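Example A, followed by Example B.
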Amino acid sequence: MPRRIPCTAPVRLRTPGRFPGFLKTASVCALIAGLLTPLSVGTARTASAAELAAVNDHCGAQCSDVLPPGQNGNATLAQILLNQAFGTQPAHAEDQLGPYANLAKGYPTLTNATINTFFNDASFGVPADQVASTVKPAGRGDVTIVRDKKTGVPHITGTTRSGTEFGAGYAAAEDRLWLMDVFRHVGRGQLTSFAGGAADNQGLEQQFWRNAPYTEADLQAQIDNAVAVNGARGQQALADADAYLDGINAYIDASDSGRYFPGEYVLTGHKDSITNAGAIAHFKITDLVALGSVIGALFGSGGGGEVNNAISLLAAQQKYGVEQGTRVWESFRERNDPEAVLTLHDGKSFPYAAKPANPQGLALPDAGSVVEEPLVYDRAGNAAAPTAANASATAAATAFSSARRGMSNALVVGGDHTASGHPVAVFGPQTGYFAPQLLLLQELQGPGISARGASFAGLSMYVELGRGQDYSWSATTSGQDIIDTYAVELCQDDYHYLYRGACTAMEKIEQKNAWKPTTADNSPAGSYTMRVWRTKYGPVTHRATVGGKKVAYTTLRSSYFHEADSIIGFQMLNDPDYVTGPESFQSAVQHINYTFNWFYADSEHTAYYNSGDNPVRAAGVDAEFPAWAQPAYEWRGWDPATNTASYTPPSQHPNSIDQDYYISWNNKQARDYTTAPWGDGSVHRGNLLETRVKKLVQAGGVTRASLVKAMADAALADLRAEDVLPDLLKVINSSPVTDTTAAAAVGKLQTWLAAGGKRTETTAGSKTYANADAVRILDAWWPLLVKAQFEPGLGADLYAAFTANLPVDEPPSAAHGPTGAHAGSSFQYGWWSYVDKDVRAVLGEQVQGPLAQKYCGGGSLSACRDTLLTTLKEAAGRTAAQVYPGDALCAAGNQWCADSIVQRTLGGIKHGNISWQNRPTYQQVVEFTSHR
């Protein structure tokens, strides 16, 4: 008999964050009654003692991985209600969160033997005594899904290729069905109609649909094209996708009839908990393209921001004149900064998107003429609320910026420098923290497929980041520019433009959404229409005048209408007959058209390759600014009907085999290779890895444990403290500090710096930072000192324009693009290089690639010191409540909580926040002992 739960008053349940807050006003007791019995039926599995035999595993029990919070991302209605009311967790919903979090204080004593205290064993197969269940999904005889006791990860073995893929789809739906459904609706711009009209839902669908406004026919055409141009592999990919979809839909049918489908379908009004009325729509192949467009936009689409660049260039030229203003702009842009940390440090040059000697085709707007193109029309109800307008503005700013969330890091050391003589790698993607997680773990073994690792939910027909039989691979976001902005001259009216001499109508694409309150989201009813005007040169983003002519600015990316193309590269990575060494690995990732840095390690070699369809630009076209939409300035070989062009050959992409070591934290790839985001200068978070790994390599004898420790140590470092604060203190201490307030602040900062400048708890679980006052002072001081250092020299207008190109700061407590605050990833974008270069110049030190002039104190050391001391005293006087104002999760003044990581709710299950770490979400630790 189900346990009785005493009920007194309705329980108001809240979930933090920018995604749907489930059960905001539900009475838990009323809903929970009668639901516990279906729970036990819905979650039952067929147990078996059978062992999944390891298939050619060359890792020698030295491959590990982790993916918080847990493998199980589905929950029945009863499980959701129990979680909301009492905090109980479904099995395997958060069993990887604790080990992941514990590394923050556990890493100093880490050894090879204790790595799997904080990670999972990522060996192939499941030992017989660790088998939790064995299932043949839908009764098929050609596939078996074994789940292990510790983590519940599915190990899928097929005797046929279609059976293997069917199992992958079935297991994915079993672990992430609701999440997959959410994101196929995000990709189609239909999230609010599906999950509710919360302002954050509105912002999320607007952010992605704006740049990928596809019709159903567009989505299908991308599938057809990917299959047609890739021969037998294209046909195999289509067959794999169809079998994968069959598996997803088989689980939908089984869970519907068995009534153990995710409870969010009830809470959002799609299913009835009593009668089981309603339906969960089957997945179709175009859903995979919609999902892919979201993931590609989040992590693999470098570029954009040309209009913002033009605005700041004009502001610089207005301030200083054309010649000096351009010089000032270029010094802040840091296209090819000689002090930037590089992934390829062997000195080889890979020129791309460099500043042309004689720019051609520039279409800079007339000052003050730029207007952002509206996306949302016909707002009604909740869509007209101020919160909705704010969400729209944030979505637009994120979509139009070049400062995309380039995440993830990698540390790879060649065998010449390791204790074993085999390469060691610690790497993974920083994909944010969600509940359930965007990624899922799996092992796939079948004809032509042999891999274990992580895949994005709904796209897991292949392992996308992980390991094969004798090799492992991972990626970081690279950010090179594959997006250009064109100025199309208008004719006839605002919705016609000149295309190769002919006045051509723009294409209107609309998505109408409406919503009403549900148990999950009690936002009032509302509706709106999203409208995008498409041209041959991509969607319209802004309007302006250029030389008095009315124009529309459009954005064109090389992966636009090619969201499905990368499937071939992932197929190859999973194929043990294809990837046999570093050269074939590089060949595989060359088929991935998104912008990533790819890393490889086997028992003998390491390798690197930068992927993406880099368009060949016309001579003289500057990728930083809008160009005229005319044949002379188009991508070379561009076919507007297919959005294909000539691309730079693989040899011109940064690539390497067996460099002594590689590091990447979204930093500059190689000499002369320009990336789209600003901030690749003398101080970058990549320096935190470079410093530590270089030191290890110089000492030799690198082990898995020592490389993990280097990563974990960098994950707690405050970049500003480690790389900029010493020079700031050098300026301040150039004369005795006599003011008692300033002297006390300096003393606290010096003590913190001597302790390593880390944001870390006093003891595990204390929820209090060591050197908390120093951390607070620097958090308060940084934005004050940057403004005081630069705004007087730049002027308010240019300073504001530059901050639109590159945010001043990104500490852990700041908002982080689409994921909001509490997102972990920190110190990617900020003015640390500018402060560093300027202060060093004022100190009289040598600076390579200096700013165009000195700003701090107008170049006077004593005046600069006064500026720093004045702002430091102001910062020291700010209370913790002022520095950390609080939010839905944290009380004002709670420093640890302000930094903490939240598994942002995408469904009904909540998890506690964990102490801040700046590290990959999914992470591998690998050292192969042999090779085929």
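Example B, a separate protein, is given below in the same form.
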Amino acid sequence: MPEQTHTTADIHQEKVFEAHIVSCLTTEQGYIERDCPAHYDVSLALDTELLFRFLRTTQPDAWQVLQDHYSAQAEAEVLKRLEKALKENPTHVVVRDGIKLVPNIRFALCYFKPASNLNPELVNLYEANILSVIRQVTYSSKNKNAIDLVTFVNGIPVATLEVKNLLTKQNFKHAERQYQKDRSPGGEPLLTFKRGAIVHLAVDQDNVSMTTRLMNGKTRFLPLNRGRDGGAGNPDVPGENRTAYLYKDLPDGKAILSREVLLDLIGRFIHLERGGGKEVLIFPRFQQLDAVRKLLADAKAKGAGQNYLIQHSAGSGKSNTIAWTAHQIINLHDAEDRPLFDTAIIVTDRLVLDRQLQNTIGSFAQTAGVVKKIDGTSRDLKKAIEDGARIIITTIQKFGTEHLQAISGQSSKNFAVIIDEAHSSQSGKAAQAMSDALTREAGSSDDIEDMILAHQAARGPQKNISFLAFTATPRNVTLERFGRIGSDGKPHPFHLYSMRQAIEEGFILDVLQNYMTYKAYYKLEKTIEDDPAFKGRKAQSRVARYASLHPTAIDQKVEVIVKHFRRHVSKELSGTAKAMVVTQSREHALRYWQQINRYIEANGHTDVKALVAFSGDLDIDGQVWTEATANGFAETELPKRFDGEEFQILVVAEKYQTGFDQPKLVAMYVDKKLAGLQAVQTLARLNRTYPGKERTFVLDFQNTAEDVKEAFAPFFEATELEERTDLSQIYDLEQRICNSAYVANDEVERFAERFFKGDLTTQDRLELEGTVRLAVERFILDEDEAQQEEFRQLLKSFQRFYAFVAQVAFLNDAWLEKLYAYTAWLTRLLPSRDVPADITITDDMLTLSAFRLQEGEAGSASLVAGETKKLDPISEFGANPYTEEEEKSLSEIIDSFNERHGTNFSREDFLRFERVNREILDEDMLDMMRNNPADVVYNAFSQAFFQGMVRMFQQDNEMRSVVMTDKDAREQATRHFFKRAQRQANAT
């Protein structure tokens, strides 16, 4: 049907845009246009003639049985059953499941696209669905209101559209208001939640928004836009409106209202989410629909063995996107109708599995047992894989245990591994164990070189595993491991929903919009005559902790915090707003909390109360504190108690800075140095939306606005690399190791021949250790400490970089694999290093004679379009010296031990702890520390460190006695080396 023509007098009007949409639907998408007075039943909100046409055409046998049983009442009986079904179940469920009538008559109300085209009958039924559109639908028996467009599937309404025209000064916001003010759902079948049309769209030539529930003035619309240049809106479409993707196929995708996409939405996306006494009908936002459909299309075209990096910002609805992907990828078939993937494994870095993710995926399961949640042992995980569970949700740590090492024959199966919050842990040993488990062949070669090459090949890309990595903040390693190589030769995300677009669309808040910094000025005076360590620039950093903990400094900052909270924050969200104080240590957190309480009491404030969060025991001023004793209730209760009305401020130290979802947080007071990803993740606690939450506040005592902007810049739009990492650097590292005075190539060969031969005995272990100790002895004899330290770091760099390189490339170099195995043992056996002596800073040495806090920058630190920064490739392999704060902390530990036990331990004695640290810091522990909050991982570290101390001091009765009997001293030492381990983990 040719498109209708218009005169110059009316070509600019809304009806022309409306007519254009209908023309595209009828000429390009297979719709038929229907007439409202002739075909639309107002009381039923159905096009009954099309409904019956579909049933008679596609299911003639069932229709014949219906007519034989009900004769003249056949149609009335169908409508009666359909009306009842629509009152009891959401429209999409009724369309998906069909209806049943006595005597055992089942009518399908829609036929969905089959997994393959091998069955022509199923393809024909899919093509027989009748898509239709009606203009100016007078939907009410109470008034003459008309909705611009309504689309139907087999006579059942699916979408309503209010169309507005920019040329007459109206836009989609006017359409939204029309729905809110003039489209009351009360008593209207077409507009009733769950009973009527599934989605309601507000449309103009540039933008589309949507809602699935009309609630008069409370109706909330969400953008359904594609995104424009990394932000909100829609890109230009040559010769068309920007919103053409709604009704017209474009080069990069089918129209949303096309047969393929619309039926896909009804059959496999839309679902009713229940929780907390509420019901929400989920209709995917554009980036969710687009990401899932493009992932599936690419996987169908290329098969298993691909990598996908999905960079979706916080606020993107990641849990639903992962759930849709998992459920649909296991039903993906190739051209021969064979499933492309046997199992989808959803891997999370969090030690506590994300319940939201579990529940979301479970709600999609049409068949009992499809989803297997592994929150028990690794043995359960092994059994689930062997039994062929279709969807498994687990943590990456469970792939690193002995239970999975025995899995054989998995290379005949294809796996889709979906990674929730992908970071560098996916390039470590735990990820390697997962790859091993999913690719292991049942048999193996007897030739040692073949075995070594097979071991190496198992690290690289696997033809039977596709990795789908989801993250908002990809690091350089993540980009190189999972990104797709673009025309510029660099890796890029497969799909992007940027932080900028999420902010502009209102799904998260811009946490940099109100950023105020404070500058602290200290005047310190020494109170002792001899102070050789206090010279030059180092003096400032050495006394910084002393100064920052001084009551005068904390008092002034607390006054600023409480005054700002009461003046600017407390009245937000109708008086329910919360704030977080981020401190640099557990002692800082406790002292801040104590001073906040004192200030509140001294000033008679009754409208603000504070909580504190930190891990472990803390000995302050002769009193042992825990989080529970400070707050008066168990740690596990804190999130719930903080969410209530009693408490407004939460003071934290290395806790609740990541993964803590409290949408009522409006302000953050930062007294801690933040950089890079840590800055983004910490400040992101503020970005959650909440009714009435329109702005946030950050007061920063440590960082500049420019520093924070620089930290956010790489993740504001598409994260990019400055250049790809040069993988050949692995040979530079290899050459430096082999040219050292410590490593002999023949010893490496001898080690590898025994190590890779297969099952090993205790005698094999002794032989392997003896071989490696030859290098250790040469190392000990060397008196050049700088060269020794360089070699230690060289080994660590080689270990980390090889694990990365082997996962992104096929190396086919057995020597590198041998050296990797050998250096792993050598790293563990090398003696610990020494550090220079230091002194302890006390009140006897210094006094704070003056302190002044002055406002610095104030205003917006928000990023703007194009204000991004590229990540650097992996290129630096440096040493890891003690920082001054660590030296000071170690001095404090030594003095504390000696004072408490009347002993005279030296720095050298305590640096034996460093050897314990090195032993337990394998790649699994580093991965865990990199990708989990400190409070989550500390217990695991503490247990491992304690066991290492016991082993270390078996021959040292005095030290062993201290370690075993003095809990406070042991905790102090553990905390010091935990911080050191965190620094090492975050530097890699």
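On Example B: The first strand starts at residue 32 and ends at 34.
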